[in-house]
């Protein structure tokens, strides 16, 4: 029997015990799902950054705020997170201003509207990040479960062999280590992606917060 064929990856997976196969199948499914969300989040965060840059350019170009609001409200293009914050704040500002309320009440109302929209936008950007964090932290341990079980089976099989050799132990240990390798393959990209996305989202959130404060200052000046 060819030892190289016996120890090939596909052969090890095919000849693994039922529990180890289940562990490998679970890790393979989780890895596929994590890669799916990695690409989805990468595109969505990149799109959010691009639209934020475009809206900031339009906002600080010195144009009329009412015209900018009308452009956002009529839905001429897909609004970005910062544009939605602006739209919510300006809509509440215009509504409360028409009621001749105290200036402080008008600004507080606009601020609450923007904070609520800010939170929704950040929550949307952070969606499924917890899944990537879970994959990164749990997958190595799931792979280790398959490894421990495979090694146990390998040594249990030695009890039926008169003289143990490396040829008897190697296939069992090799199939066990494949489970660990698949666990690491699932965990490492998830951890790297989570850290990167969390950093990018934090930067976008800071830009949203800064814009909210600056926009409130502009609204206060319009009330004077």
From TrEMBL:
Keyword presence, Transcription regulation: no
Record organism: Zoogloea oleivorans
Main location class: membrane
Protein name: Tol-Pal system protein TolQ
Quaternary structure, from the entry: The Tol-Pal system is composed of five core proteins: the inner membrane proteins TolA, TolQ and TolR, the periplasmic protein TolB and the outer membrane protein Pal. They form a network linking the inner and outer membranes and the peptidoglycan layer.
InterPro entries listed in its UniProt record: ExbB/TolQ_transport, MotA_ExbB_proton_chnl, Tol-Pal_TolQ
HAMAP family reported in the protein's UniProt record: TolQ (MF_02202)
Keywords, ordered alphabetically: Cell cycle, Cell division, Cell inner membrane, Cell membrane, Membrane, Transmembrane, Transmembrane helix
Family: Belongs to the ExbB/TolQ family.
Known function: Part of the Tol-Pal system, which plays a role in outer membrane invagination during cell division and is important for maintaining outer membrane integrity.
Transmembrane segments: 12-39, 129-152, 172-194
Keyword Cytoplasm: no
């Amino acid at each position: 029997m060819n030892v190289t064929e016996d120890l090939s990856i596909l052969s090890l997976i095919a000849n693994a015990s039922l529990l180890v196969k289940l562990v490998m199948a679970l890790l393979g499914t989780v890895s596929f799902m994590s890669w799916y969300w990695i690409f989805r989040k990468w595109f969505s965060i990149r799109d959010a950054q691009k639209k934020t840059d475009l809206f900031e350019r339009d906002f600080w170009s010195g144009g009329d705020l009412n015209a900018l609001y009308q452009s956002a409200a009529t839905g001429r293009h897909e609004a970005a997170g910062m544009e939605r914050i602006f739209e919510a704040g300006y809509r509440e500002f215009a509504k409360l201003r028409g009621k001749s309320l105290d200036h402080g009440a008008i600004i507080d109302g606009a601020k609450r509207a923007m904070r609520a929209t800010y939170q929704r936008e950040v929550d949307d950007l952070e969606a499924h990040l917890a899944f990537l964090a879970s994959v990164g932290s749990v997958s190595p341990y799931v792979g280790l479960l398959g490894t421990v079980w495979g090694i146990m089976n390998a040594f249990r099989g030695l009890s039926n062999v008169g003289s143990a050799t490396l040829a008897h132990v190697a296939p069992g240990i090799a199939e066990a280590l494949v489970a660990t390798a698949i666990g690491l393959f699932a965990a490492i990209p998830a951890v790297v992606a989570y850290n990167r996305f969390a950093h990018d989202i934090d930067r976008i959130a800071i830009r949203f917060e800064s814009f909210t404060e600056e926009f409130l200052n502009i609204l206060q000046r319009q009330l004077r």
